[in-house]
Design goal:
two-stranded parallel sheet; binds fe (ii) ion; alpha/beta; 12 helices; Phenylalanine Hydroxylase
């Protein structure tokens, strides 16, 4: 889909969210996110155009940004786009009443939360691990586990950096109250391992009480590979 016209209210919502979230991420976000954020240079006052995003991200990592009218793309479709290194951003913007927390991913989440990371080749490599495993999975249980592992790492994970806990997940980056709760130590934190995450029910429509902490992006890749590699190898062996 080509670029579309957003309303004045939607641009204003973007500007307000951007103004609220930037000081928070500067203080508490992972250095990886901030490195990508500084490279991407999102506009503060208006929703970025697709042309802008695709002038920055494909040269950096080979990923392309694609807009969709769908508000919540289902996982099978999502991972087919992922497999082509295409990142979907929705045209939906949260209403003003949900400025500080929205249960549904909106374009502010998709763009502000996710896209800075897609300026970093080693982060793109992390994301590129998911689709091959998801598409090779043979049972609903395997697919659910893969989604759950994504949810508690790239969407809602924390990371240890220089002895401090920083915010890593994109769903936290774009959400005001939940970001503050996560950053200021008000939740329960557990080490990110396959076993810890598999034992936990995914929370979709309320804020999290339990979060998982990675030691580094490399540790996360190693941990994910422990679950993903056998699935991918089994499919290859056919
Ligand atoms: Fe997301």
């Amino acid at each position: 889909m080509d670029d579309i016209e957003f309303t004045a209210v939607q641009h204003q919502t973007w500007a307000e969210l951007y103004a609220r979230q930037v000081p928070r991420v500067r203080a508490h976000a992972s250095a990886h996110y901030l490195a990508g954020f500084d490279l991407l240079q999102l506009p503060a006052e208006e929703i970025p155009t697709l042309a802008f995003l695709n002038s920055k991200i494909p040269p950096a990592t080979g990923w392309t940004v694609v807009r969709t009218d769908t508000r919540y793309t289902d996982s099978d479709e999502w991972y087919r786009f992922f497999d082509r290194h295409e990142f979907l951003i929705t045209n939906y913007m949260r209403p003003w009443e949900e400025l500080d927390w929205t249960p549904e991913p909106d374009m502010f989440h998709d763009i502000f939360g996710h896209l800075p990371f897609f300026m970093l080749p080693y982060y793109a490599e992390l994301q590129e691990m998911f689709a091959p495993a998801y598409l090779a999975a043979q049972t609903e249980e395997e697919r659910d586990t893969i989604k759950q592992l994504a949810w508690y790492s790239t969407e809602f994970g924390m990371i240890r950096e220089d002895g401090e806990m920083k915010v890593f997940g994109t769903g936290l980056m774009s959400g005001g109250d939940e970001f503050a709760n996560a950053a200021e130590g008000r939740l329960n934190y557990h080490p990110f391992t396959i076993e810890n995450v598999m034992g936990h029910d995914k929370v979709l429509y309320e804020q999290h009480r339990d979060l998982y902490v990675i030691e580094s992006i490399d540790q996360l890749k190693t941990e994910l590979a422990r679950y993903f590699d056998p699935i991918v190898e089994r499919a290859r062996a056919g």
